[in-house]
Amino acid sequence: MNWFEDLPENCPPKDAIVPNGENFYRLAKNNPPKNEDFFSQRKEFPFTIFDSIPECLARAVSTWKTTDKCREQKKYPRHRNKVIAELTLYKKDGLIKQTFKNNHYSWWRSDDFSIESVKILDES
Among residues 82, 84, 115, 110, which one has the least CA distance to residue 95? Predict the structure, then answer.
């Protein structure tokens, strides 16, 4: 698989799984969504030191299994104008792993993921 971002050795981890048509959610700045709405923390902030996060996780895209956390985040000023994006991920789109909290999934995005497949759930 070709990855959208450069990944460190042994990344994604061996226990990452292949998605099979599951839906995941993420806040996006743009409507319609753009590539930059699906960057990892490392790609967005290349010089930031993430002390408590392994580099492999810093290079994954954070997603949620339900819209609850997205709606909660929209209450904060920096996320207020973002929209909720729904991603239906398949094998060609990369690998995922449940990380941090029960509802949170890290997604290692492949080059084959298509932005055009993303659905916007709200317009606010």
Answer: 110
List, for residues 11-61, the tens digit of each pLDDT value: 999 999 999 999 999 999 999 999 999 999 999 888 888 888 999 999 999
Q: Which helix (H) or strand (E) holds 68?
A: helix 68-73
User: How deeply is 33 buried, as exposed, middle or buried, from its count of CB atoms within 10 A (0-12, 13-18, 19+)?
Assistant: buried
Total count of domains within the chain: 1
d(CA 21, CA 92): 10
Answer yes or no: is 4 within a domain: no
The DSSP call for residue 53 is S
Closest Cα partner for 24 from 112, 93, 100?
93
